[in-house]
Amino acid sequence: METKLVRIDKNNIDAALVRAAGDVIRAGGLVAFPTETVYGLGGDALNAASSEKIYQAKGRPSDNPLIVHIADMEALAAIVREIPESAVKLAGRFWPGPLTMIFYKAELVPYETTGGLDTVAVRMPVDPVARELIRAAGGYVAAPSANRSGRPSPTVAKYVIEDLDGRVEMIVDGGDVEIGLESTIVDLTEEPPTVLRPGYITVEMLREVLGDVAEDRTMLRDDSGQAPKAPGMKYRHYAPKGELTIVDGAEQSVIEYINSRIDRHRRENKKTGVIATDTSVKRYRADVCKSAGDRRDEATVARELYRILREFDDEQVEVIYAESFDTDGIGQAIMNRLLKAAGHRIIHVS
Ligand code: TXA
Ligand code: MG
Asked: What spacing in Å lies between the alpha carbon of 67 and ligand 1's midpoint?
């Protein structure tokens, strides 16, 4: 398939291009597009055949449900059985934005979109290109992250093209994303509402609005025996090709430990890499040292993490060490993704 690549500037949206992209989705085709979290691979959420195509294009197991993206509150009522009070409150505070809520689904939503579940995940993104596209496409766009299954979610169009060129009708390049990690998912069919995937909207922020909010216990731990409630969280995700280990502890000890490991790997002729931060990056001896951002502003780390993981793949790094991050605020989402990428390999040094 010939993939059409178009650029849309979010500060100056070309309505004709958005209409063309919307028409592709209306006709049952697929369009990759930017959101504020990561790029999404969009199809008509109410068309079972489109959802099947999404699974094929991603190489993703079809029991892994898709998020339905909407552009306004009016669209919600048609696809869910009921809108609980908690949803009204959360939408008032966090929509449009990086929050996905899970509801009981209405009949209109095909099981192909929900991976066979009676529930449906819904998100209203804030990115203006995403919003215009959703409207142009008829109001309901199913969109997983626009990566091939098992690779980090794309935060720049270059990686969407790398993963999906030739597999989708259109790719919309809308520039770099703002957040860099996928949306927070909160399941409103559970009592109390339960966070299934941490993101930019933290559990504390949700508690400020709802009071009691639980967390799926597989979020930060390696509960191999237990199935996470978001089916997608069980798959080996975000994994770089090199073997990744997180090292946690005081800065000086972490640097010394990692450098000693790197010396050893070098004797084995392995290409080494380090995921560091702005203040530490110059102190490592690895072949490839990258700063993920400013430790005092973890949002910078969230934005760079997936791009960095992909770059280690591009540069064929075989062994990677990463510094660890605080787990408050966005740090919880960073550590959730980093731990998955590392297959939960973490070493504590003192
Ligand atoms: O930020 C995001 O959410 C991005 C952008 C494109 O919007 N999308 C995204 O989609 O991350 P995806 O498909 O990569 O991840 C969706 C996650 C999966 O882990 C899936 O299992 C879970 O949401 N999910 C979807 N529907 C669900 C449901 N009904 N119940 C439980 N988990 C669900
Ligand atoms: Mg994904």
From this structure: 5
What confidence tens digit (pLDDT) does each residue in 267-305 have? 999 999 999 999 999 999 999 999 999 999 999 999 999
Candidate from 101, 182, 305 with most ligand 1 atoms within 8 A of CB, to mutate: 182
Q: Would you say the CB of residue 230 lies under 6 angstroms from ligand 1?
A: yes
Residue 177 CA to ligand 1 center (angstroms) comes to 17
- Whether the model pTM is above 0.85: yes
The string of DSSP letters for 19-65 reads HHHHHHHHTT--EEE--SSS-EEEEETT-HHHHHHHHHHHT--TTSP
Q: What separation in Å is there between the alpha carbon of 286 and the centre of ligand 2?
A: 30
Instruction: Quote the ligand 1 centre to 283 CA distance (angstroms).
Output: 38
Task: Provide the domain limits for residue 295.
Answer: 243-348
Ligand 1 pocket member 99 (CB < 6 A): no
* Nearest ligand to the CA atom of 235: 1
User: Are 122 and 25 in a shared domain?
Assistant: yes
Please report, for the domain that includes residue 87, its CATH number.
3.90.870.10
Boundary (domain end) residue, out of 181, 197, 215:
181
DSSP state of 65: P
Domain boundary among 150, 181, 212: 181
User: What pLDDT is stored for residue 28 in this prediction?
Assistant: 98
Give the phi and the psi of residue 340 in degrees, each rounded to 5: -65, -45
* Model pLDDT for residues 12-35, shown as the tens digit of each residue: 999 999 999 999 999 999 999 999
Index of the ligand 1 atom closest to the CA of residue 41: 6
Ligand 1 centre distance from Cα of residue 94 (Å) = 17
Structural tokens at position 75: 């669209």
CATH value at residue 286 = 3.40.50.11030
Closest atom of ligand 1 relative to the 230 alpha carbon: 32
Residue entry with tokens 């993939």 = 3
- Please check the confidence at residue 139 and state whether its pLDDT lies above 90: yes
Q: For the chain, what is the domain count?
A: 2
**245 φ, ψ (degrees, to nearest 5):** -130, 135
